[in-house]
Structures are given as C-alpha cells and as structure tokens.
Amino acid sequence: MFRAWGGQNHPSLTRPGHFSGARGATGGSMEIRVAKFHIGQVVRHKVHPFRGVIVDVDPVFDNTEEWYAAIPEAIRPSRDQPFYHLLAENGETTYTAYVSEQNLLPEEDPTPLTHPAITDFFDAVEGGLYVSRIKRVH
C-alpha cells in the first residue's frame, strides 16, 4: 500500500491492474475494475509535459475534495475511473503526481527516469517495466 499522498489504505491488487474489495457508498460490492496501466509502467500525461512511473493505483478517485475542486470544471476528470500515483518528472524537476486514467498514455521513450525515489520502490527495469521491491503474494 502506498500512503505518501496521505490517502487511506487502498484495495489490494489481486493481479496487476485488477482490484477487489472495493465497497460502494452503501457498503455493497462494486464491480471489479480493470486498470489500463500497471504498477511499474512508465506513462506520460496527454496534456502536460511530464512522464513518470506508476507506484500505486486507486480503482476510483481517492484524494481530497480540495484537490479535486482545484481542477477547472471544464477539464475535471470523472471520479469513477482508476487514478494513478506517479513518480513524475519533466525537463526541470521531479515530483509526485496523481493522474486520472483518461489523461495518461503509455510512454514510448526508452530513456530511463531520473526521479530520486525510484529506488525506494523498484529494484530493476525488465522489459520496459520497473520491477517492484515489494514481492506480492497471490
């Protein structure tokens, strides 16, 4: 579970990109969501000039109302989609980002990322994916 963004515990991944255990507002089970991107995958933003590696996935929006309200309404993403926690970078700096699935594309640039926190989460790069330091038991 990744908590650096101050979010609550996230549902466990049952296999890459699949979520279970999510509960709706009434306490009933929600359908299983299939995320388009995976932890360790490098992605880029569709509009803003940055790219990053995914370190966690929320099956639906799970950030503060203040954060959500700060996005102009005309471009505000739907809450009912996966949101990704990224170690992000652009030509000037590195930072963390929280991005909706609709605003991400797979990155095709093979240049390694330089974010200083990458080694906190990943051991190596294999086949273009960063390999998690945490071994998941399925």
Automatic annotation (TrEMBL):
SUPFAM superfamilies per record: YccV-like
Annotated Hemimethylated DNA-binding domain residues: 34-133
Pfam families xref list: YccV-like (PF08755)
Annotated spans, Disordered: 1-24
GO MF, one example: DNA binding
Top-level taxonomic group: Bacteria
Keywords noted in UniProt: DNA-binding
Listed name of the protein: Heat shock protein HspQ
Origin species: Pararhodospirillum photometricum DSM 122
